[in-house]
Q: What sequence folds into this?
């Protein structure tokens, strides 16, 4: 039984991670919820079963309350983060009628410049050609405005 629960936790983590890496905010929220469920299940698997600490019979071991407290804390934190992500998704839907997370243009530009600089450092590309291309792009950008 424990092995099957461990396999379920593994599958939940895998599916949740896959959904977290998607570009749509609704899938990200669902992925976060699945990962949180996997974490709660894993926490509860770590506790030993036993009698309740208060009001239980004196015979036998008592249950460890720490995994239950951690699972409850995880549920509360997940609820707050899910509410925040749902608010972001709703606002994104209001503004653009889409919940897809788009690439940042500035990030792409910086990544391209870093790749060109790495090629120049390795002397694969002539530095003068790169400078000429950058100047041409600046001129075209000014003309487009």
A:
């Amino acid at each position: 039984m424990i092995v099957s629960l461990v396999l379920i936790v593994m599958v939940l983590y895998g599916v949740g991670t896959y959904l977290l890496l998607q570009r749509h905010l609704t899938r990200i929220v669902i992925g976060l919820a699945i990962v949180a469920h996997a974490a709660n299940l894993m926490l509860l698997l770590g506790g030993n079963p036993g009698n309740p600490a208060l009001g239980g019979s004196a015979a036998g071991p008592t249950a460890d309350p720490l995994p239950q407290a951690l699972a409850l804390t995880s549920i509360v934190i997940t609820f707050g983060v899910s509410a925040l992500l749902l608010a972001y998704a709703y606002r994104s839907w209001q503004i653009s009628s889409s919940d897809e997370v788009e690439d940042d243009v500035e990030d792409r530009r910086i990544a391209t410049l870093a790749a060109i600089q790495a090629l120049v450092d390795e002397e694969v590309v002539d530095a003068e050609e790169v400078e000429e291309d950058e100047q041409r792009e600046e001129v075209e950008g000014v003309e487009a405005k």
Summary: Residues 105-144 form one domain. The helical segments are 2-20, 25-46, 65-96, 105-121, 127-144.
